[in-house]
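We treat protein structure as text, and this decision shapes the records that our systems exchange. Because each token names a local backbone shape, the row as a whole describes the fold. An entry from our holdings is shown next, in its original layout:
>
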Amino acid sequence: MPLTLTRAAFLGGLLAFAAAGPVAAQGQVVVYCSMQEDWCNAAARGFEQATGIRVAMTRRSSGETYALIRAEAANPRGDVWFGGTGDPHLQAAEEGLLEEYRSPMLEQLQPWALRQAEQARFRTVGIYAGALGYSYNRRELERRRIAPPTSWADLLRPEFRGEIQVANPNSSGTSYTMLATLVQLMGEEQAFQYLRQLHRNIAQYTRSGAAPARAAATGEALIGITFQHDAVAQAVQGAPLVVVSPAEGTGYEIGSMSIIRGARNMENARRFYDWALSVEAMAIMPRVQAFQVPANRNAPVPPEAPDLSSVRLIDYDFARWGSSAERTRLLARWDREVGALPR
């Protein structure tokens, strides 16, 4: 039977409404985001458009988010912890702060992302990877006629006194990765000796892991120790930064995502988790100048992303250095022996 004009118009209106966006609000999900703010906001908009679920997004560093989730354990206010270095995610998983979830998207992930999930008994999952390093302001080094640094050892040179920025490892997953990297690379005693010497050259310990790259980009600092992709994000905007993979070798992060145990919006948290592992979600990365390597095997890798195969990466032991005991012990030692030193 042919459609009447009224019925055809009605169905056509429904189709047009559906094509324009979600037909109705589907509740909310509260997301604690530990990545760059542009990426957090773009992901929130993308998920809302795809599902109709409203996102309440708060941006904090990895260390700050871990502390918040721990403080709220008896009465969780967040649903998803989105991004940030994997070590504090692993610690939170070990402490029972995160929910086990085996997403149907796991089969699309890179092996390193899946290993992260398996190590945490599926209480967290890898969503991107990036190498640690540092960047220097080429223009300022040339103006001052300073030879470019190429290694961790070079950062101790006297001409860099008060010219380096790095984050505080208590608030920043980036800086904790540096701490754990140096311990694995040099041995613990030598690593802390190195950090005490490096302290003389540190102008500021920032709260955010990416902030030192911005400081180097503007000339506020000569050198910023960060993940390399954070420096690349400044360089593609025209900053005179040169990105360095230290000659001795370096560590790397597996940025992670987790569902918070006791989440009030559990079903929506799982929907966000699944969506965030999709090609659609990871395609947002280059649009917001996030140059990490995405976890989904089918997602395109931004051409500007550092080539991890060309970086001398250490065999970073995520299980050990992401454990609650080791993180707590290392951070306490850093506070005593480095953070407390006068400058």
Confidence is low (pLDDT under 50) at residues 1-25.
